[in-house]
Amino acid sequence: MWSNAIIAGAGLIFVAGLLDAAVSDLRAFRIANRSPLLLLAAFVPAAVAAGFGWQDWLNHLGAGLALLVIGVVLFARGVWGGGDAKLLPAVAVWTGLAGLPRFLIVMALVGGVLAVLALLARRLPLGPSGAVRAWGERLAASGHVPYGVAIAAGGIDWWGMALFPSLTG
């Protein structure tokens, strides 16, 4: 009984951390360190409550380590920001190797949509003045794509499927 409550509470913290990352990336094109740290901190009690054995720990930590390496390479090449490179492996620790394909596909699809929207914001008139126009101008001037939104979307999709496996068909 307590284990289900711990897992559910940790899952809500996971979603809250992803939403925090997405909102901060949209607002300031930065992901605060608190978001990936919150995800990692919530994972530990969830894994213990789920009764992870050593193979489960290796599976999930291995997924995180693999995506940390990819994130560091993307950061070093200037493709991603440091926040993206930290958030990605924090989500991968939750998904484990089995959940990575769906997470990465959803993340890539949402990231593609974000990239198209960013290109449009740089090419099209942004309309009347206001908060949306000011954000669009910052987006256009920065050259950034708030990819934390895509990472969060993929993570929340994975979480929903893990919580409601009957939805996967």
Largest sheet: none
Rg for CA atoms: 17 Å
What is the H/E string? HHHHHH
Shape: elongated
Overall pLDDT score: 89
- The end-to-end distance, rounded to whole angstroms, is 27 Å
Query: How many individual β-strands?
Result: 0
- SS class: mainly alpha
Query: Segments where pLDDT lies below 50 for 5+ residues?
Result: none
Tally the helices: what do you get? 6
Helix content: over 70%
**Beta-strand percent range:** under 5%
Would you kindly provide a written description of the structure presented here, covering whatever features stand out?
It is a single chain. By secondary structure, the protein is mainly α. Helix content is 80%, strand content 0%. The protein is elongated and about 55 Å long. The model has no long low-confidence stretch (mean pLDDT 89).
